[in-house]
Design goal:
Elements lengths: L1 H17 L7 E2 L4 E8 L8 E3 L5 E7 L7 E8 L11 H4 E3 L2 E4 L2 E4 L8 E7 L4 E3 L3 E9 L5 E10 L4 E7 L10 E9 L8 H4 E7 L7 E2 L5 E2 L3 E4 L6 E3 L5 E5 L9 E6 L4 E5 L18 E3 L7 H4 L2 E9 L6 E5 L14 E3 L4 E9 L1 E10 L5 E3 L12 E8 L8 E9 L1
Length: 412
């Protein structure tokens, strides 16, 4: 067991070294589940709110089904997600950045798994954000002092105009396995004199920080902007469409489910075995996102049941460890999302407790050096529908922290 944990630490350290800018929600208590961080009601997009615009909504379940006095601490972060040390709480928060409790609470109703559902929105009567940028919210048990999770989101003030395009005619191949992003920004509203030191740029595929491209050098610079064309740093694997399933009822199968059952203690749902995909077939999906709901689509947060979901992937042994990945895994490669190889069935398998709802997911292999690749049987196609995001951070000469001044997204 100790050797296994050491291997996990080494792999995660290697991954961090390849992208020190990675940002994750992190659940630190086994009693916390179904963490959601959403800007407004847009569960399909990254948690990015406009300054003085829509709220950031954070919700989670406590599986102890006991009341806990949870409080939160809000911290402004730099472009690399390190905590901003050059500013005061009063610079970015009107009200209280630490110590406010989460008081919107509901107990589950008529569920086999008992839980308590907590909700928090920012801004609220105790805290209003005054500055754009990256934010980390830490929730802790006020009585015991233990941190139970951290949640990350962003607030943008749209001062920089951005445009993006995606092509399959890349500098590596044409209409084969890759997609390439082109982008242009106009920062005339900021009066930037040295974009190399005043700007941070981030381009992501499907909102994943673990494969984000940071500060790629532009091909063109004008007096008011930058342009990236035929930039090899902005070439991404096309990959394949995400898999998906939906558990709406615990008495019969729904989308993507082969069967559901009850073992006398817990509900179980078995996904249809995911077979090799040698050819591309379009299938509309949510690029890793998830949405909690039940068949009635009412009181989703308190009457939806927890179900042990059985994942099965038909694939040969991979050169690395295989994980189920999606927004709902917080893009984390931890033991609860790792698959094991069954020598008898020749399948990768995983058993993950999830709350009823819609889930999209993919299978990724983590190599010994920490790099991530699609499982070999999943396919890699230029036609795949992917979403791309661009973030522009700005720290002017003499300013104390980075603000998020530009954001754009596009689908391939």
């Amino acid at each position: 067991m100790r050797k296994h944990l050491l291997a996990i630490i080494i792999a995660l350290s290697a991954l961090a070294a390849t992208n020190s800018f990675a940002q994750y929600n992190e659940i630190k208590s086994e009693n916390i589940a179904s963490l959601q961080v959403v800007a407004g009601n847009n569960w399909l997009s990254m948690p990015i709110a406009t300054l003085n615009g829509e709220a950031i909504n954070i919700s989670f379940d406590d599986l102890t089904h006991e009341y806990h006095r949870y409080a939160y601490r809000l911290q402004h972060c730099e472009a690399d997600w390190s905590v901003s040390e050059g500013i005061f709480e009063s610079d970015y928060c009107e009200g209280f950045a630490d110590g406010s409790t989460i008081d919107d609470i509901e107990e589950s109703l008529n569920t086999n798994t008992l839980y308590t559902h907590y909700r928090l929105s920012i801004p609220n009567e105790n805290c209003r954000i005054k500055m754009s940028g990256n934010y980390r919210l830490t929730v802790y048990d006020e009585n015991e002092g233990d941190t139970v999770f951290t949640a990350c989101f962003m607030v943008v003030e749209p001062l920089v105009k951005t445009s993006m395009a995606v092509t399959t005619n890349t500098d590596i191949d044409t209409n084969k396995a890759h997609q390439q992003v082109a982008a242009e920004i106009n920062y005339s509203a900021l009066g930037i004199t040295n974009p190399n030191t005043e700007l941070y740029t981030v381009v992501m595929q499907n909102g994943r920080w673990s494969t984000a491209r940071i500060n790629a050098a532009p091909q063109y610079q004008t007096g008011s902007g930058l342009r990236w064309e035929h930039n090899r740093d902005y070439i991404f694997n096309g990959g394949n469409e995400f898999h998906k399933f939906e558990i709406l009822d615990v008495t019969h199968p729904t989308l993507g489910i082969e069967n559901v059952g009850w073992d006398g203690k817990n509900y179980h749902a078995q996904i249809w075995t995911d077979l090799p995909r040698p050819s591309y077939i379009y299938d509309e999906d949510a690029n890793g996102s998830f949405y909690i709901r039940n068949s009635d689509n009412i009181e989703n947060d308190r009457i939806s049941e927890y179900v042990t979901v059985h994942f099965r992937l038909q694939a040969p042994r991979q050169n690395g460890r295989v994980f189920v990945n999606g927004v709902w895994t917080n893009d984390r490669f931890t033991p609860q999302y790792e698959m094991t190889y069954n020598e008898q069935t020749k399948l990768y398998e995983a058993y993950i407790p999830l709350k009823q709802g819609y889930y999209s997911y993919q299978y990724l292999t983590m190599c010994d050096d920490g790099t991530l690749h699609p499982v070999s049987t999943e396919g890699n196609f230029y036609q795949t529908e992917n979403s791309y995001q661009m973030l522009i951070y700005y720290k002017g000469i003499g300013q104390r922290t980075y603000r998020l001044v530009g954001y754009n997204k596009i689908r391939s």
